[in-house]
TrEMBL record:
Gene: LOC102747938
Alphabetical list of Pfam families matching this protein: LRR_1 (PF00560), LRR_6 (PF13516), LRR_8 (PF13855)
One GO CC term on file: extracellular space
Organism field: Leptonychotes weddellii (Weddell seal)
Keywords attached to this entry: Leucine-rich repeat, Repeat
Protein name, per record: Podocan-like protein 1
InterPro entries reported in the protein's UniProt record: Leu-rich_rpt, Leu-rich_rpt_typical-subtyp, LRR_dom_sf, SLRP
Region (Disordered): 1-20
Domain of life: Eukaryota
Keyword set includes Ribonucleoprotein: no
Keyword Flavoprotein: no
Listed SMART domains: LRR_BAC, LRR_TYP
Amino acid sequence: MEDAAFPHLGESSRPPPRACPPRCSCPRADTVDCNGMDLQVFPDNITRAAQHLSLQNNLLQELPYNELSRLSSLRTLNLHNNLISSEGLPDEAFESLTQLQHIYVAHNKLSVAPQFLPRSLRVADLAANQVTEIFPLTFGEKPALRSVYLHNNQLSNAGLPPDAFHGSEAVATLSLSSNRLSYLPPSLPPSLERLHLQNNLISKVPRGALSRQTHLRELYLQHNQLTDSGLDATTFSKLHHLEYLDLSHNQLASVPAGLPRALVVLHLGRNRIRWVEAARLRGARGLRYLQLQHNQLGATGLPAGALR
């Protein structure tokens, strides 16, 4: 009798199927994966509950403001390897993404960085674009920001504002390699542990430029245009935790002064060093690896006792 009166009770009690954009997969209620679908248009029907959205490896040229801004629960937005230009990435859309922690926009067509990214951000990857300029609130005022990747862009020193990282006191990794920097940027985050500056046009580290980076452990300056006059005795002296320093492929004629005691690895290969002054190595008592290949050292270039 009960079955006849309520023939569809079992079916109606099931939860409705989750909406998912065509051709995409939604393995969890908070995850939308549209990776590698050759999408040319931002997919519709993305649930407002989405926390993780992957649109990488597609053909997107722009993100519509009205579609992106309504996804206020997003924590991860992956746009890696698309065709998105700066004009196609509206700054206003990020204002409502107050939960966003990870944004990946590497391998796109950005000419400038977004003027505003959410305060909640932890990781930002804008590598392999054509970025010539970032703005104070691109990476500034982000207390949780830990990693910033800007390598393989077209940044010059003029494109980096002096307050680029103001209020972002937790940044541990910063990659600025393969850009057009001519000197080491000032006002870098004091919290840095890894700094990548290789493959630039750097000929000078301004006095005091690294005086606050006392947590720095790895510094990559290879493939630049550094000469002895571009460094001084205080350049590295306050980096008390520095363990790895790569200065290979530069134009140095001597071992830098003021090497920190904690240094373990020092790369000086492919410079113009003719003479290793023992006093320059004396402070780096923990040094285990010293690379001097492809310099101009003669028979007396490494005097007896220099490594004692």
